[in-house]
Design goal:
Layout (H helix, E strand, L loop, with lengths): L6 E7 L2 E7 L5 E8 L3 H23 L4 H6 L7 E8 L5 H13 L6 E5 H9 L11 E6 L3 E6 L5 E5 L11 H17 L7 H9 L6 H11 L9 H16 L2 H9 L3 H24 L14 E4 L2 E4 L12 E4 L9 H9 L7 E2 L4 H9 L4
Parallel strand pairs: 1-4, 4-5, 6-11, 11-12
Antiparallel strand pairs: 1-2, 2-3, 6-7, 7-8, 9-10
Length: 368
């Protein structure tokens, strides 16, 4: 590994922070991790700490002794570009705040700040030629519920994911909330009985036949929002509330896999919402009308290893489709299967396990 070569950093900043250090050929040389660096939740100081920890970890795992360099007041090796994809980056103000943090590290002036959904798309919708811009749609269903599309001409659009008060349809939080509502309807005699009652009782350690206890548990999670605490305490109360309800999503998937009709209906609703968001985003970037499919090359290569695409000519083009998030990547795959069925004009979904790979591709790509 030549010391003179420039490096590229791709960073995922969601509920976790993952930094990948790559060489000029895109080879991943090191990886560093840290806790969440989401600026809108963590604030400037904690966001900066998490980003720096992950970056230093990436250099260190690549065999670069960052401790000695920093102790000797020496600079780290040259970084040609940094790209970070962060949850909650929607406005120019958000971008500038994150850019200011990265600028303070004095690693490079070539900084790209974008959304977490964008780097998911770049990681999953561009498998044949990594140097070309990706197009297609990415759907996220975990911490958030949203779709992000990119057209062939570079236009982008997002749909959904406007926070837990205004719309996170399809997210783990949303699915958990619908489960609680279904249990309360069943307890009142307004809805069908469901296996979720016993599952939530076991998970939350509350009596299944006491709907008042269930409701009280949910409202108690938000009690901190009205106590006049500081900003960090309020944000922690919000995150605890969302995280606790999101923890019920795996139970809904499990119940649906076992044939529970109530759980299946919750996932049907979530899939419809996510598909609606995907279709809206695709339409806004001009990908709402599939074209005749070109003949595919039967093979392509990653790292010199050939992969068979099963290429065939004719038919209708299907749009590249990437998925990410705890619910869509779950083992039962109940929401994933429903979403795929609801998007017949999209290709088979590509599961993105490390969105930071998409950030690396954006960092490597020459910016116009």
């Amino acid at each position: 590994m030549a010391e003179e070569q420039p490096y590229y950093l791709g960073i995922e900043a969601t509920g976790r922070t993952v930094a990948l250090l790559a060489g000029p050929d895109g080879e991943i040389l090191g990886e560093g991790t840290a806790t969440s660096a989401v600026y809108s939740v963590m604030g400037q100081e904690r966001s900066s700490q998490a980003l720096w920890t992950a970056i230093i970890g990436a250099f260190s795992s690549a065999g670069i002794n960052t401790r000695d360099l920093l102790q000797a007041n020496l600079t780290l090796p040259e970084v040609a570009a940094i790209c970070v994809g962060m949850t909650g980056v929607e406005r120019p103000k958000d971008e500038s705040q994150v850019r200011r943090i990265l600028n303070s590290f004095n690693l490079t002036k070539n900084i790209i700040v974008t959304s977490d959904a964008h780097i998911v798309l770049e990681a999953g919708c561009n498998l044949e030629n990594f140097s070309d811009p990706a197009f297609g749609v990415a759907v996220l269903a975990g911490e958030t519920g949203q779709a992000f599309a990119k057209g062939r001409d570079g236009r982008t659009a997002r749909s959904g994911g406007w926070g837990y008060l205004l719309g996170e349809e399809g997210s783990a939080y949303y699915i958990g909330l619908q489960a609680v509502k279904a249990l309360l309807r069943a307890a009142d005699g307004r809805g069908r009985e469901t296996a979720l009652a016993a599952m939530v009782e076991h998970d939350w350690k509350i009596p299944a036949n006491r709907p008042d206890t269930l409701a009280q548990r949910v409202y108690s999670l938000l009690a901190g929002l009205g106590t006049g605490g500081n900003k960090a305490q309020l944000e922690e109360s919000q995150e605890t509330y969302k995280r606790t309800l999101a923890g019920l999503a795996p139970l809904v998937e499990q119940a649906a896999a076992n044939g529970d009709e109530v759980a299946a209906a919750i996932l049907d609703d979530a899939a419809r919402s996510l598909a609606e968001a995907a279709n809206a985003a695709l339409a806004r970037v001009g990908l709402d009308q599939p074209a005749p499919a070109p003949a595919k090359s039967p093979t392509f290569q990653i790292g010199g290893i050939p992969f068979n695409l099963g290429g065939q000519a004719g038919g209708t083009e299907k749009f590249p489709f990437a998925i990410y998030g705890s619910v869509l990547l779950s083992n039962p795959g109940q929401l994933r299967d429903r979403l795929q069925a609801a998007l017949p004009h999209c290709d088979d979904p590509i599961a993105v396990l490390n969105p930071a790979e998409g950030a690396v591709r954006l960092a490597l790509r020459p910016q116009s």
